[in-house]
Amino acid sequence: MEYIELVLIPILIGLLEAIKRTGFNSKFIPILSIVLGVLIGVFYSGFDIREGAILGIYIGLSAVGLYSGSKAVVQGVKQQRK
Fold first, then answer.
1. In the prediction, which pLDDT does 23 show?
2. Average pLDDT over residues 10-22
3. What are the boundaries of each domain within the chain?
4. End-to-end Cα distance, the chain
5. Helix (H), strand (E), coil (C) string for 8-55
């Protein structure tokens, strides 16, 4: 895997956060992450559907994991301060 593919994960997280702030129901963020990840993967791979879909699923799932993991850490820190 190339390093540029790792840069796509925080870019997707930024997109998801911007979409969430527009009022999008955060319950559907994981699904949206995979869909956007596949679109980004297909575009990045030069419109090779098979390779792009696999890369996109990887990017989407990684973004959701990083997003939810950081959210859990922030909530844990807030609870310890109480």
1. 93
2. 92
3. 7-81
4. 43
5. HHHHHHHHHHHHHHCCCCHHHHHHHHHHHHHHHHHHHCCCCHHHHHHH
Torsion, Cα of 57, 30, 21, 16 (10° steps): -10
Distance of CA 28 to the CA centre of its chain: 12
Q: Six-digit token pair at 26?
A: 């955060």
Question: Within its chain, how far is the Cα of 19 from the centroid?
Answer: 12
Q: Note the pLDDT tens digit of each residue in 34-62.
A: 999 999 999 988 889 999 999 999 999 99
Q: How far apart are CA 4 and CA 20, in angstroms?
A: 25
| Residues 11-18, mean pLDDT to the nearest whole number | 92
Residue 48 phi/psi, 5° resolution?
A: -85, 105
Q: Are 24 and 46 in contact (CB under 8 A)?
A: no
pTM: 0.78
